[in-house]
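Extended Data, panel c. Modelled sequence:
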Amino acid sequence: MTERDRIALDLADESLRGRVVDLRGRGLDPVRVAAGVRRTPPTDAGDGVGEGGSDRGPVVDCPRPRAVHGYVGFVRPSMSIRVRTALAAAARSRGGEAPQDEALADVRDQLADVTVPEPPDLAGPRERLAGTDDAVDRIRERVAALRGRVQAGREAGRDVSGLEAELAEATRELSERETERAAAREAVERAERLAREGRDARERRRRLEDRRANLQRRARAHLVDRVRGEYEDALVAVPGGPAEAERLDDPFAVEGVTAALAVGRVAEFRAPVVLACDRFASAQAAAEWLDAAVIRV
């Protein structure tokens, strides 16, 4: 038995070992068994969590699943899969590579380095600047008026000491308000600079995400082309699958269980496949057909 065929499954009252484990009749929730294989919390998102399932599934000791397991490692009725994506993952499970891999890794690294700052508060600094502008204009007019009155008083020979004191106070206040306005303007300029940097970062991230998506599509197409023939051969061999005459119309538009089993036959699994469907005479027959360890639920 190879490492990938090793399954150790601990139930409440029994431990099971081997390449094939049949759990039918034990009342176990298939979703939780699959979660045990994947070492993830069970989810009912599209998995059809069985009513009355226990909160905890069995403890499954097995090799860590490859990515393809997330697509076709848990085969159950009414499932749906993205066949091309799953098939690309199947090709990857066998060491398949795509010409776009290096560029894709580079784009992912660049995306990881992109930091998009939170949008700064522009309204607050702009309101403060507008307020200081009004204050400066108002006090400047007052200073100009006082200077005129002081000048007129001096020319008329009147005592202007009171006006001079008032002018000095207004001038001091004007200086303070101008300082506040300069600080408010700097705050606005800083906020606007941060906003520009944020826009630039978001735009850079968007361009990189677009490039990543494009590379992923091309890499997926390349990988699918490599194994498409094997997948189509597997389709007609799936127990209960489409007949030979039906298969070539659109091999990517077959129902979920058949597609999952065909992709699974192309893939190389490391962790056991969890089967909750009646396509095989026995769990052993499923393991032999898939060439993988199997947990039948």
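DSSP finds eight helices and seven strands in the chain. This feature is highlighted in the accompanying rendering.
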